[in-house]
Every structure is written in C-alpha cells, then in structure tokens.
Amino acid sequence: MKQKNRRVLLVEDEEIMALYIQEGLSRLRNIESKWISKGEDAWLAVESFGPDLILMDIHLGQGMNGIETANYICRERSVPILFVSGLSDSATLEEAREVRPVGYLMKPFEFSSLKASVEMGLAWTSHHRQIVKTDSHSEPTDTTHQSNGVVCMCSNCKSVRDQKGRWRRLERYLNQKFKLIFSHGICPDCFSEFYQDFTSENESNAN
User: Fold this and answer.
1) Using the 8-state DSSP alphabet, how is residue 199 labeled?
2) Could you report the per-residue pLDDT of 104-115, keeping only the tens digit for each?
3) Is the separation of the CB atoms in 39 and 61 below 8 Å?
4) pLDDT digit string (tens) for 133-185?
5) Quick one: 6-132 is in which CATH superfamily?
6) What is the pTM of this model?
7) Which of 34, 94, 149, 206 is the 20 to 30 A CA-CA neighbour of 66?
8) What are the residue boundaries of the structural domains of the chain, listed by start?
C-alpha cells in the first residue's frame, strides 16, 4: 500500500530561503510541501492544504509576524508549529515558547538539522492523531478515579497510586492511562527564576 503523503506548510517571506527549504523537503520521504510568504495568507492555506506540520518564519516583513500567525492558527487547529528563524534574543524566544512549538530551528542550518526537526514534528502529529482516535473508541477503566473523580496523589513527591495500589510517577501514570508522551521544557516563570543570570551573561557577552 502506498503511504499517504505528509503535508508541510512553509511560511517564509524570503524567496531564496523558501526555495532552499523546499529543496530540502523534497529530499524527504513522502513529503508534499506548499509555500506562502505572508502570515495573513496562512489560515486560508491551512484550510485548503491541511498541513501536518507548519514551518514558520518569525520575521515576515510587513503585516503579521510568525508568532502572531502561529497563535491565530493554534486557536483554531491543532497543527504543530516548527519555528525557523535567525532570531535568538531572549524576548523573541520567550514569546515563541508561549505558542508551545514542537521546535525552534535556527538559521542558517544544514539539511540534517532540517530533516531531524521536520521528522520529529511529523511524528508528534502522527502520535497525537493516534491518541485522539484511540480515545474516541475507548472508555476509561482505571478504578483509581473513584465516582467523585478523586485520584490519590502523594503530597510530597506528587506520585499517583494506581488501581493496584502501586505508586507511580505522574508522568508514567499519565503515559500508561492516556498514552501521553512528555517532552521537557522550561516555563517562563522558572526561566526567570533560575536562568535569568545565564541569559543576562549571554546578552552581556554579545554586547
């Protein structure tokens, strides 16, 4: 059986960079790509093209920038966003994190980096769709959830007791029950509390 093409939407205002990325995408297996240059055109492209992954530049010239465009799309559709940008300042990175992208690919980059980032983003899409499909055909059977919806959680380490009385790490419990896979990042509050000195030092060195 022929495998269905995976669709990647590229939002990039620089033609040379767009052609470079599209050439790289053409070297990947079962990839169909579409390029647009303006954030304002992105939603119509999402509706008509139905992408499995969006590669989003941040600086798109006049009009909506990439972060604004990604926020708009994510309010309406569950499509993973992979930012592709040459911007690395702390303000841009913090704003981009709010979108919860599947990655942030720094320009310039080599084909190997593009391939790895795209494949990881498409894997996220495939897994997410499988979870939705499974949930729609199954009923929860875990007796850890009592009739009043209470789950027993350790007040110290936040482990959860399962239906057999075993204590599980919260991530493992949710993985077993809902088939969730966790990635790890740093929320803005923790970033400000624990990594502000690191950021300030990098910015000082850059200046």
Assistant:
1) H
2) 999 999 999 999
3) no
4) 665 555 444 444 443 456 677 766 777 776 666 777 777 767 666 666 666 66
5) Response regulator (3.40.50.2300)
6) 0.63
7) 206
8) 6-132, 140-207
